[in-house]
Amino acid sequence: MGITLQTDTRKKNPERVLESGNLTPGQIYTIKGGDTLSGIASKYGMSIKDLIEANPNISDPNYIQSGANLNIPSGEEIVEKNRQNAATGNSGSSGNSGSSNSSNGSTGYQYTPFTYDDFTYQDYIESGAVKDYYAKMTDAEKAVAGYGDFNWSKQNKYDKLFSEYENRPDFSYDFNADALYQQYKDKYIQQGKMAMADTMGQAAALTGGYGNSYAATAGNQAYQASLQNLNDVIPELYQLALSQYNQKGQDMLNMLGMLGDERNFEYGVWGDKYNRLVGQRDYYGSQYNNERAFDYGKYSDDRAFEYGKYSDDRDLAFSDHSAQETMGYNNYRDAIEDEQWQKNFDEAVRQHNEQIALEKQKHDESVRQYNETQKSKKEEKEEKGEVSGYDAVTADINTWIANGATKSEIRAYLRGAYQSGQITYEEYEKAFKTYAPNGYTY
Fold it and tell me: I need a surface site. Which of 87, 91, 329, 397 has the fewest CB within 10 A?
């Protein structure tokens, strides 16, 4: 007798691919009763694939033995494994690698690394205004650098005069070296000689024209008196020489002052022009810096905007990629689970049919033995001329039917007749099909 089993109506709960979290490197986990690989992977923040790759001794992910040890990979190990897989194009999962993600559990799951073009954007190029200010700034810098130091044409003259003034000897007066004194000396000597001659002549006239000692003495006295006037003029000549010495010094100071004023004026003119050049350099430098900062800021804003769009597109692509990989992995896991469930189901059906066949065999043997016993009893009754049990039972049923008995009552009566031994199993089936033909299953 066969059996009919309904198809699988269980609700699937596919595992979600989890990113690796903070793990303890080299940790060993001992499997407990009721544990599943998906539960352990979720507990440590990783995917089932990562857990299986770290434990190549797992032959069937759906069957893990309580008390066995699992290696829990660290986050660094998972990242390095994925990097190597991406570099070699190997999915790293158990089983044969395919060219694309597969939902067939027998071929294994292959992860497709996420790839996306790097962000590119044109390099910064200065605007025309920036270049114009840069050229003006450069020209102004050259003008300042080429202006040169202040150079006064009369510097040597000034230095020479200043040296002369600084090195002038102190005032001293030597009347013998004074030309004016020599003039006075010649004059007073001449006047002395004339006074001496007049005095001697007058004295001689008093004596009748003859010279005498008195005349000589009087003449000499007149001469000395004239020379005394020469000595009286020396202080005057000293003061005059001192005045000339001081006036020359003052004249030199005045000349130094005039030259200094002239130098200051020329230096002022030089400084004004230099300051104008420096002002232009600083102005154009400031304009260049401001314009370039504005221009580069606009470039940076545009680049940031484009990078934002790029990041959004990349994130969206990564999200789609992750969703596809998750779906592919879930399909892979579903295929493994379905395949394993079908194996388990087929094994259960086989064991069930085997048990049913064994029980049927036992039942058939029991029925055979019982029928032989009933047959022997029937033959004994026939030899004694007694009425057949089956005929008596069918006669009773016909009477019950005439009196309005239901099929359930007839079935109950047949079961009682069979169990009491009035009829054999074959006779029970025959009567059941005749009087209560609603069909049955074993």
Answer: 87
